[in-house]
Amino acid sequence: MINIPKVKIGIVAVSRDCFPESLSVNRRKALVAAYAAKYDAADIYECPICIVESEIHMEQALADIKAAGCNALCVYLGNFGPEISETMLAQKFDGPKMFVAAAEENIGCLSDDRGDAYCGMLNASYNLKLRGTRAYIPEYPVGTAEECADMIHEFVPIARAIDGLSNLKIISFGPRPLNFLACNAPIAQLYKLGVEIEENSELDLFEAFNNHANDERIPAVVADMEKELAGGNMKPEVLPKLAQYELTLLDWVEAHKGSRKYVAIAGKCWPAFQTQFGFVPCYVNSRLTGKGIPVSCEVDIYGCLSEYIGICVSDDTVTLLDINNSVPADMYKSDIEGKFNYTHKDTFMGFHCGNTCSSKLAACSMKYQKIMARSLPVEVTNGTLEGDIVPGDITFFRLQSTADCKLRGYIANGEVLPVATRSFGSIGVFAIPEMGRFYRHVLIEKNFPHHGAVAFGHHGKALYEVFKYIGVPVDEIGYNQPKSARYPTENPWG
């Protein structure tokens, strides 16, 4: 994927000066060897310059990992650790950081080579709080070299998302369409997250599009579209306009990203877009999202923000769908009941007009936008990519700012079922355990809009840590509770 960070984690070992430094040195070497044996060694950098025991060591280590190009930090407690200098290192490092600690290896170490990092982690967490410094601490942060290597590997997608957000610009075009107030949210939280935003008029975009007429690159983009669509190229006449629009957006990104490394787009697609541009942008949105530049529909700024987080965490394309309609009872009875372990209320259909990347559709065809064509000439609604979404594991999630500028989010692991939708657009039959209760007591109760980001695979664990790290209060992160756990707003008498 383009447009997302490549994570390089600097591993800095620390030591309390009353412990043998060799403990941390040897344990750091074992940790690095364990990571390289199991994962990509390019993910990490072993800071060799010193073991941090003091503020002077902290400054030396900080300079070293910066010079090595590290954009993430792992503070490794090889023993108890110096609570001041180790947390100062985290405070001064500009990027995502984590803390892990070494477990004692065997009985023989308990006399002269006991490290007490189990104790040191408590002091480290306390001092991080005193400094107001956020850091990722795994569920159980003390382990062998192999276990700590696994923890660091789990940190990679979390670090990628956090670093990406701090270098992200969201480019939007136009206000949200009428009757889409649900997608309207205060942008103040974007700045608190370190995200920049550039809001533009649709007229600016239209001018840029017209300036790309007869662009010499259009035939090559059309040829690429034809190759992707293959037998699903049902509207070949619209491809030159779509290629012109794709080039317009890509050139806008390059000209407007400014000091930022990464970009996401919140685009407008109706009501005047079709009549003025002469098409709908769904297919182009799907292609850019497939490359790693998420483009949300209906100027959904927090939707494209959520999509970008999903791309960083999954290292794969994502999509943005309406939590759209219930599964008809006859479809549930004929295609789901008795075949999958879900109740009718666990299922729903996720849909959007045609914005899902072709790689995530079981089959795809270029078509017209059926809903818009009810009131407009069909030819100005061409440009959707239709098909059933591929079956498999998914994560439905969203990060949102409330009307009073508070961050809130939800995450739910589920799956797309291998059930034919018999419908139109980019669409799938989704199943999430206890979805009915989640729908009522999280999505409705917490006032979330109808758009949800979809990552392919189960990424709830990493997304939860990202949300916590960026400051979403844990009681504002909704998830689908099991039957045994009651939601605060759930009637105890059913």
Work out the helix count: 15
Helix fraction by DSSP (H/I, runs of at least 4): 25-40%
> Structural class of the helices, strands and pairings?
alpha/beta
Amino- and carboxy-terminal Cα gap: 46 Å
Q: Largest beta sheet, briefly?
A: 6 strands, antiparallel, barrel
Oligomer: single chain
Low-confidence stretches: none
Strand element count: 18
Rg calculated over all Cα atoms: 25 Å
Question: Could you give a short description of this structure?
Answer:
The protein is an alpha/beta fold. The protein has helices at residues 21-38, 55-67, 83-92, 117-131, 145-166, 188-192, 202-211, 218-229, 239-256, 273-277, 282-291, 301-314, 329-335, 435-444, 460-469; strands at residues 9-14, 44-46, 72-77, 97-102, 142-143, 168-173, 196-200, 262-266, 295-296, 318-325, 347-352, 365-368, 382-388, 392-401, 407-416, 426-431, 451-456, 477-479. It has a six-stranded antiparallel barrel, surrounded by four helices. A five-stranded parallel sheet has the order 2-1-3-4-5, with helices on both faces.
Question: Can you describe this structure?
Answer:
There is one protein chain. The protein is an alpha/beta fold. The protein is built from 15 helices and 18 strands. The chain has a 6-stranded antiparallel barrel with strand order 10-11-16-15-14-17, surrounded by 4 helices. It has a 5-stranded parallel beta sheet with strand order 2-1-3-4-5, with helices on both faces. β1 (9-14), α1 (21-38) and β2 (44-46) form a beta-alpha-beta unit. α2 (55-67) runs parallel beside α3 (83-92), α3 (83-92) packs across α4 (117-131) and α7 (202-211) crosses α9. It is globular.
